[in-house]
Write the structure tokens for this entry.
Amino acid sequence: MKDYIKKYRLFLYILLPFVLSFLINSFIELIVPVYILLIWPLCISFVIYWFWVGKQFAKVKFNKIKSFIIGNVWWGISVGLYYWQFIILDDSNRNLFLAALSQYYALFILPIAHRIIALFSNVFDFTQSIILSYIIMIVIFTLGFVFQLVRMKINESNTVSH
């Protein structure tokens, strides 16, 4: 039962960025002043949170590759939707609902991506920013995942040597 609850919690962890971004987008007119003030604290908090989520998936007791893939399933679906809606389809064929959904998952990383792009270009391209946001997300998750695997390996070797 405990493993089932933990797996259910892990599912909620990876769904949280989408849900929060959807809520922010839904109520943006009401919360714009607050959101503008909190954009960087939210962004930094999300980076820490996403690193932590990567660590949680590394702790799961089944195959680590499978765990990594499951931890990024919503990421992959969102990237795929974004690619389909903004790279493959032209504006006249785009489904606005799916196009919006495809951007929600990376919303909290968008300010970081935009700042990185601004270092190299004076032109703001939203497509580049979203794609970079998704890349940053997978890097943060991977860093948390690998950090935890290394930590567990060190703890395991320390336990065996004592």
